[in-house]
């Protein structure tokens, strides 16, 4: 009524109220009354916006490639954005008077496409298919410094690469090549496994041979040790036998020396006895017969004296006229002899 109208914005909208081209009131989520004939209201969404993309590009080796992803951005400087694009509301207070708000996504995507295209055109197909992470890092770095986005007052929050795919024909060719490579790797794996098995068997056989050799060496060492012990034992036995023989020789030598010494002593004793007897016989030869007879009679027993007397009687029987011997004397003499 009378050209007055009430406007209320939500918390995610930035509002610029202009009268006759001069901004009178700006802010986020504000409300006010305005006079339609002289007032222009511009509303800019300041919340995060998502813009998915699919770009069909060509690599440096002239192969078709599709890059699919999404970029998230927001209007960081609404007043700058409102100066670059027309966000004025129509008379109904809901729609825009131009299509500029719809072009913001396209402008952001064109910047993203330009960066991706420059990168893809410098790489070959195989490299491009494996370039997701480097391409993502490139986008994050380039979008943060892009002057076109800064002139629009837009800040990119996040960007992601969902897929990088070749054309169907190229994909089949790559799949066939990859399949052949996988089969070759499988064959190589079988060959490697067989080779490893053969090497393991050879290793086990070598270990067995080494074990047998080690056992034989140990047995040889034991046999050598046993023979050395036998040699040492024989040497010790020979030394003992030699010592025994030497002891016997020493004993025989000592015995021989003892026999010789004993014979010498006996000879000396015999010489002494012979000398004694010789001296005695010499003395007996020089003594008178009567003295010798007296000495002999002095050492005789009564029986011997009687026997000597009878012997004298027998010798001098022709000189004796008559000799009377009583029976008592004979009996007494017989008793003495019987004793």
The CATH topology of the domain at 4-166 is Tetrahydropterin Synthase, Chain A
Write down the Rg.
Answer: 77 Å
Distance between the termini: 203 Å
**Largest beta sheet: strand ordering:** 3-2-5
Question: What are the low-pLDDT stretches, counting only 5+ consecutive residues below 50?
Answer: none
State the CATH architecture of the domain at 4-166. Answer: 2-Layer Sandwich
Tell me roughly what share of residues is in helical segments: 55-70%
Helix and strand sequence? EEEEEEEHHHHHEHHHH
Shape: rod-shaped
Topology, number of strands: 8
Strand count, sense and barrel status of the largest sheet are:
3 strands, antiparallel
